[in-house]
Amino acid sequence: MSEKKCDPVILKGIGASPGVVIGPAFLLDYHKVKILRRQIEISEIDQEKERFAKAVSEAENQIKQLIAEIPEELREHSGIFEAHLLMLKDRAVYDRTLKLISEEKINAEWALNKALDHVRGLFEQVKDQYIRERIEDFEYVVRRVQKLLSGSPSVDLSQLEEPVILVAHDLSPADTIQMAKEKILAFVIDMGSRTSHTAILGRSLGLPVVVGLENAMSSILSGEILIVDGLHGDVVVNPDAELLRHYREKQEDYIRYRLDVIQYSNLPAETRDGLRFKIKANIEFLEEISSVISNGAEGIGLYRTEVLYLAHKELPTEEDLFLACKEVAERMSPFPTTIRTLDIGGDKFLSSVSLDDETNPALGLRAIRLCLKESNLFHTQLRAILRASAYGDVKIIFPLISGRSEIIQVKEHLEKTKDNLRREGIPFDEDIKIGIMIEVPSAVLLADVLAREVDFFSIGTNDLIQYSLAIDRGNEYVAHLYEPLHPGVLRMIYRIIEAAHEAGIEAAICGEMAGEPMYLPVLIGMGLDELSMNALDIPKIKRMIRMSNQNRCSALVRDLLEYSTAQKIRGHLLDFLTSDFPGEFDLDHGLYPDFVGRDAIPGPLMTERCLPY
Ligand code: PEP
Ligand code: MG
After folding, report:
1. Count of the separate structural domains present in the chain
2. Which residue's CA is the closest to the ligand 1 atom numbered 4?
3. Confidence band (pLDDT; 50, 70, 90) for 356?
4. Ligand 1: which of 303, 343, 531 to mutate, judged by most atoms within 8 Å of the beta carbon?
5. pTM for the complete prediction?
6. Model pLDDT for residues 153-191, shown as the tens digit of each residue
7. Quick one: 217 and 244 in the same domain?
8. Atom 3, ligand 1: which residue's CA is nearest?
9. How far is CA 191 from the centre of its chain?
10. Range(s) of the domain holding residue 135
11. Which of 17, 320, 521, 594 could bridge across to 203 with cysteines, CB 3.0–4.6 Å?
């Protein structure tokens, strides 16, 4: 419990998706429920009591459900839950809470807390330690009701009535699917880095996002007014008039910048010396397709299909998957759509598909490994994607490939699925192109071998950097060590592109690096064929490609590959950016503007990331 604060506080995190918004905070707290006292009107009393009764009956249902799911061998311990059911309706808690709501005209959460304090007092007087400790059971059931009252995500996020800024430790994609998206103004997240899944999801939704704040949950109260500047990573709590004015100006700057840069959407992504790139979009939701088209993408370079698995409690049927893939393929036609098979696991949530809890999920039964183990699950996807290939230019991409034998198995499954469809007379593209994501270091070392087996590569730098530098992409404590310019990373990217070209196939990049202007000269210089990114990043990347010179970028890369530390590489790259893109990068201040605006991004991306490599 905490008192409401009034002084402005500025929290500093990692800007993960640009834009400035102002609005009330909504805390999504799974672990700890913050309880605010609210005085209610006489006219609200009945409604408040009803809300409390409803939460108790929901908690009752949850506990009954828990009891029903207890495995046979643990049945004898179900008594504890039966006791919880009784505690829910215990007079000292239930009746007392109702009484406090009407007598003191306070909200249910606060009343319930007072009732719990009363019970706690009673227990403290008991001599027997065992009985005294049973207060923990009361606390447990009260917490359950408090959660339902003040922040049950499945209920509240889908029923938000007013626009809010969502503040959370982290979001599961299940939360994001359920939330009333039109009511969410921004994400403010304690965990994560720019490449964590929540950051990517926020960008997909076009929301300002700040991640890696570490202490937002303990510094912000639900209902407090926040300003979120997703470019600079600022979260202002309880802003005063001066701060509001300052950030409103930034908001206007950003809007102006978007209007300016959007003009580049439909221009070709061609360097000054005539080298043309394919610029595509990454999507997670079908709702993004219109933004993909309006931002000038020439296809979908990565359709992350995981969301389809989280929209329902059960697994999606072949028909569900087929309809989604067909819709993307048709709407993007004649441009190509690259559909990724299920990449669940790692930082991407637990779901009904994940079988057991794993100690180290990022290295566990993730992505293609899960699909190869669960062949029915895999065949359903392959059938759906192949069927969709009759309706547009569809390609399939397989995530987290670590060696040749996985590709051989994948191809066997694919051939088997094609045979079945042929036998059933179901049309599909007989010549469908298949690719792999290169995101595991062993796949880099084997790139020449793997390139002979597939039609294209796409470099997943989010994971490639995570696995090669041993930096958890979702961990805010090591986010500053996540270094795309690490010489080891650059050599890997170079090696992948070289191996692809030697084998006569194309190399794309679909990690977040593709949408960051600062890395563009490096990617151009390495000879990449295609870049796939969040749709909103496309205009600014096209704009920058059109300012670039491929010959100069190639010379830059030759120099960068000679350096042995990230600092040296960064320093040289910054000099290059200053000379070749005057005005675009304000290097005097160690700044990296995502756009040319009032004041550009401080610190994290440049100055604070001086690494000891
Ligand atoms: C990547 O790893 O770079 C990638 C594009 O895949 P995801 O972010 O979905 O893991
Ligand atoms: Mg990946």
Report:
1. 3
2. 460
3. low
4. 343
5. 0.75
6. 444 577 788 899 999 988 876 677 768 888 999 999 999
7. yes
8. 460
9. 11
10. 42-150
11. 17
